[in-house]
Design brief:
Oligomer: single chain
Low-confidence stretches: none
Number of strands: 5
Order of helices and strands: HHEEEEHE
Radius of gyration: 13 Å
CATH class: Alpha Beta
Distance between the termini: 41 Å
Mean pLDDT: 90
Helix content: 10-25%
Largest sheet: 5 strands, antiparallel
Length: 89
């Protein structure tokens, strides 16, 4: 499944077009590599997402083509949620 679709189906990001924009802005990394919206995720991938002032890191545990709201959280496991480190000059 494409990373932009995964982010939408898992309800991490509300709309696929927004997920694509976030990936295009290099705010998504899979296994410590910046990816494109067409990147195919697999079970076991570690995904880091920059949301404003925090970085959320998840592990993909299941890929489901379409889910109900209650089942969406079963697709991933939250690893960490940290503030973005700012370089002070």
């Amino acid at each position: 499944m494409r990373i932009d679709k995964f982010l939408k189906v898992s309800r991490i990001i509300k709309r696929r077009s927004l997920a694509k924009d976030v990936v295009d802005a290099s705010r998504i990394m899979v296994n410590n590599k910046v990816v494109k919206p067409s990147y195919n995720v697999k079970v076991g991938d570690i995904v880091s997402i920059i949301f404003g002032n925090k970085i959320v890191t998840i592990k993909i545990v299941e890929i489901i083509e379409s889910t109900k709201k209650n089942d969406a959280k079963e697709m991933y496991e939250l690893i960490s949620e940290e503030p973005v480190k700012q370089d002070l000059d």
